[in-house]
Design goal:
4% of the residues lie in helices and 50% in strands. The protein is built from one helix and 37 strands.
Length: 438
């Protein structure tokens, strides 16, 4: 029996590694052609997307359906941050700040005290939040920049930082005190330059960490007080981008990756290793680009987005579950980090029945692969449960084509023990056991 299992597993591995692999980003129906500029998920199912003409979309099923919400404005909305399923803040042009405490059923305007446009927002809890923004600027008129902060859920906003020479484009806080903001502007001596600001007292003071030349930063993501990544691009005919990494709270920043002909706008890390950055190809085209790392940025791998539209924002709730938004109502979703899906239809033809295979390796630490077969296009739910029957992870929750599929569960943040994974597709339901040993 052991010999037979070894042979079967070997055949499965040979098929897996010799079959065509595609990055698994699935296009979702947003119901709009408006540009979508920001996204925030609080769990695998519950998320909000915002964009041009005051559009706000909401999902409670991982993006299977998106429902429009009334924002009460037609202004461009560029940032969104939810701290739980009900409590969130949206920001946009002309000092727009909107707040909800009921999952977006109603959005209440809040006074910002400025007409500058906001580009980003980050809340660490229901009360403590920061908004950043400014202007676009040009060679004659440098962009202004601004940072506002609230400690009461936006009832009042206090100006913490203001500059006439650089826009502040993105912000990331890991707790109510520790945060980093990035942006850029124009200086007659060096031309374009990027700006990195750091606070450890909730924004009472913002310290300038860097104003190096050439690049303007548009995104930043910290997973703890020390470890963070910032991205941006070079405004020139080269349209190169830059990925910067720090592991000492921004005292030093190291360039990781900077090829030409790509401009990045947003980045999201779920832990120190797993991160995704999105943007577009060079100045004269608009192909959507997605880059992924699983080793803290030592290596960045390009993934196929499957769209020619520019991509503006990305949000992951864990290493596998992520959503990207962009031009023309583009919403892309992945349940496996955007990688390692075997193409649904292969040379063996369409299978005749459902099949859920045993995960491999098993026991495992910290990742394991799960493969399954679909005889027809189906809505698939693949979830993991603990010994008490509590759902602990959603690996797949979307429509997949007929054929063989493979996905990965990364259990790095879970304790050792016995777990169960359950596949549900149509009327087919099957559960198998797996063992995590650390």
């Amino acid at each position: 029996m052991r010999t037979l299992f070894t042979i079967s597993l070997s055949c499965l591995l040979i098929f897996f590694f010799t079959s065509p692999l595609t990055a698994q980003w699935i296009m979702q129906n947003s119901g709009t052609t408006n540009c979508l500029r920001a996204v925030s998920f609080t769990d695998a199912n519950t998320g909000t997307v915002v964009g041009d003409s005051g559009i706000i979309l909401r999902t409670t099923n991982g993006g299977v359906t998106w429902t429009p919400q009334s924002s009460g404005t037609t202004r461009f909305l560029s940032g969104v941050s939810f701290t739980d399923a009900n409590t969130g803040t949206v920001v946009g042009d002309s000092g727009t700040i909107l707040r909800t405490t009921n999952g977006g059923a109603t959005w209440i305007p809040q006074p910002s005290g400025t007409i500058l446009s906001f580009h980003g927002v980050c809340f660490t809890d229901a009360n403590n939040g920061t908004v950043v923004g400014g202007g676009k600027g040009d060679l004659i008129f440098p962009p202004p920049g601004i940072i506002l902060h609230t400690t009461n859920g936006g009832i009042t906003w206090m100006k913490q930082f203001e500059t006439d020479t650089a826009s502040v484009n993105a912000v990331s806080f890991t707790d109510s005190d520790t945060g980093t903001a990035v942006g850029g502007g124009w200086n007659n001596n060096v031309g374009n330059f990027y700006l990195i600001l750091r606070t450890t007292d909730g924004g009472v003071t913002w310290m300038c960490q860097s104003t190096l030349a050439y690049y303007i930063l548009f995104g930043v993501s910290f997973t703890d007080g020390m470890t963070g990544t910032a991205i941006g691009d070079f405004y020139s005919d080269y349209c190169a981008f830059e990925i910067l990494r720090t592991t000492d709270g921004g005292i030093t920043w190291t360039s990781q990756f900077s090829p030409k002909c790509v401009a990045l706008e947003s980045i999201c890390f779920t832990d120190t290793d797993n991160g995704t950055a999105v943007g577009r190809s060079g100045c004269r085209s608009s192909t959507g680009y997605i880059f992924r790392t699983t080793d803290g940025g030592t290596n960045w791998i390009s993934q196929s987005s499957g769209t020619a539209n520019k991509l503006h924002a990305v949000c992951f709730t864990d290493a596998n579950m992520g959503t990207v938004v962009g031009d023309s109502g583009t919403i892309l979703h992945t349940t496996n980090g955007g990688v390692t899906l075997v193409e649904g239809e292969n040379q063996r033809g369409v299978p005749q029945q459902y099949l859920l295979s045993q995960n491999y390796p098993n026991p495992f630490n910290p990742s394991t692969n799960i493969t399954f077969t679909l005889p027809s296009r189906s809505f698939v739910s693949l979830k993991v449960f603990d010994l008490l029957g509590r759902e602990v992870a959603t690996i797949v929750l979307e429509v997949l084509s007929a054929g063989d599929h493979s996905c990965q569960w990364n259990a790095e943040n879970f304790p050792s023990g016995v777990y169960f994974y359950r596949l549900q597709a149509g009327t087919f339901i099957e559960t198998k056991k797996l063992l995590l040993l650390k």
